[in-house]
Design brief:
Two copies of one chain form a homodimer.
Chain A lengths: L4 E8 L2 E13 L5 E5 L5 E2 L6 H4 L1 H5 L2 H4 L4 H7 L7 H13 L17 H9 L12 H14 L11 H14 L6 E3 L5 E3 L1 E2 H13 L6 H15 L1 H4 L5 H8 L5 E5 L3 E6 L4 E7 L4 H14 L8 H7 L1 E4 L5 E7 L6
Helix pairs in contact in A: 4-7, 4-10, 8-9, 9-10
């Protein structure tokens, strides 16, 4: 069992100040490992990086079509959004179209990550609602399936039909039994898998086309929705949105809490999954950008690539004090 | 050379989700290692954890007495404050007493970490000033020395008398030549040392008494100021302030950016320094609390100990989803 490898380094002047170690796998459409760093069998919780898997039942079950969902809704079902107006307007309308209200969402309230929305809330002395939760699109998706199946509203229960369907889809696309689960920040179960299993799942999404079995078609529709609306999947100024735009809508990427990141490359039929062992987002953003550059999917000379991969450390007085960059030898 | 060791683990349900590795040394008053984890010779930038060293020239030079500084000022010179009113009121008066204005501080402006102060600023649509910078007390101290020595105002320059004095004191108390430096978040030079050197410096502060050489007396006064005003060294709700209060004013602790933490134990004449390699504060807070419990300085049953050492992970809906706790086998 290989240990995690250095993926990102933080330099301050000539001093190596901090290092992020991690595991990563690039998987092809047959499920085989093309490249690996660290331990492909390391068990991880995929956190929000698996939202496109959690959205499979929404499309596969026919719920999305029955309720007339558009690509924007599907992009938000896969999103960790910033709760900017472009996100919350859609989620609120979606809930209203389902004849549901904010408290039907089981996720807790969350202060918007979008600075404009947060400042407006502070000025109005308002408290956040559940639709501000970064996972509210995923939960609106769960509620849509719940309505469609006409089942009880406790849709985050491990034995609820929605979560049983999520788990079945999750184990199918990862190609393995899930070895456990955790309760996520939004209270939904988050099923564990290995880095290899998770990369295999992303390769499933990468090879999915508009024909074939329902699960393939559902996967293809979700990827198309993410690619069509990168600003709905995360938000302005985020790594997800900026990286997807920089790759011209040809590669979908998704962050997860605690240093998880995935990428879906339909052109190359490749899937990528990575986890920074210490859970740092700055490490996972750097590492996914470095792998995407290495695979030729992201142009190393693009300003967005350097913004996330070779991150100038600027202090409060505006001085450049160091850099965060891929570790020596990573990705190759 | 030993690698860093696991110090803190983040569990979600039954899954080990993230791990923080680090180096730490406990040093006695003769400068010898009492206990070590990882590599005592690992080079680190001490960041804000060395502010009490950077404040030595302020006291030693006679500047503090010449300008009538009180314990509150000395505590703030050693502080990474939250920019609550209790902090900024003193810094603003201090500047005014020096016949100086905000722009004489070379640190950049920073949005207050104190939520009340931050929200008030957002509501008033105000921009932060330099006195809001968490390092403004340290900079007011540098300015006091600059005034006292009647030297130029570019006090963060590496060759400025203030920084030459800081470096001389730093190398003296760490017991070694500094192998380099970085520019800190506040634009001051931050001198590198080893974990052992930094723990030795903290042991210097721990054994310092009110008599003896000027440097000893200065160190003793700074420790007394930190212990007398734990709320000025950081702020309400922070690990530094809470841990110092929980230890009844008998142990001084100080955080630093990028996962650094130190402790000064006058009763035991011990100094502690630690660095989480990935730079995570949650890791360094857990690790310093665990070592302090192990040394008998902090009561494991105190609510503050568990708040920082066995940190329940509560999600946005208020559910307990996991725990952050010392790694198995750490500290022993």
């Amino acid at each position: 069992m290989a240990g995690p490898v250095p993926m990102a380094e933080v330099w301050r002047g000539e001093i190596l100040e901090s290092v992020h170690y991690g595991h990563a796998v690039v998987c092809d459409s047959s499920g085989q490992i093309v490249q690996a760093w660290g331990d492909p069998d390391a068990v991880i919780l995929p956190r929000s990086s698996c939202k496109m898997i959690q959205a499979l039942p929404l499309v596969e079950s026919g719920a999305a079509d029955a309720f007339g969902l558009e690509q924007e809704h599907l992009a938000l079902a896969c999103a960790s959004h910033q709760a900017a107006a472009i996100h919350t307007d859609i989620v609120r309308r979606w809930l209203s179209d389902l004849d549901l209200i904010d408290s039907d969402l089981i996720c807790g309230p969350q202060v918007p990550r979008d600075a404009v929305a947060e400042n407006a809330m502070i000025r109005a002395k308002d408290a956040p609602c559940r639709y501000h939760n970064n996972c509210s699109g995923k939960h609106a998706g769960f509620l849509t399936v719940t309505k469609h199946l006409k089942v009880s509203s406790d849709y985050v229960d491990l034995t609820h039909p929605v979560q049983l369907a999520v788990r079945e889809a999750f184990e199918d696309v990862t190609g393995m039994q899930s070895p456990g689960f955790g309760i996520d920040g939004c209270s939904a179960p988050n099923f564990a898998t290995t880095i290899h299993g998770f990369a295999r799942a992303m390769a499933h999404f990468a090879r999915a086309r508009d024909d074939g079995p329902a699960r393939n078609r559902a996967a293809a529709r979700l990827v198309q929705a993410m690619l069509a609306y990168p600003e709905l999947v995360a938000g302005e100024g985020t790594a997800c949105t900026e990286l997807m735009r920089a790759m011209g809508g040809r590669v979908a990427v998704k962050s997860g809490a605690e240093g998880v990141y995935v990428a879906i490359l339909p052109d190359q039929k490749l899937g990528i999954a990575l986890k920074i062992r210490d859970g740092a987002s700055r490490g996972s953003e750097c590492a996914i950008a470095a792998i995407l550059v290495d695979l030729g999917a992201l142009d190393a000379n693009d300003a967005v690539a350097s913004r996330w991969m070779d991150v100038k450390q600027i202090n409060l007085a505006g001085l450049e004090t160091g850099i965060l960059r891929p570790a020596v030898g990573f990705p190759r």
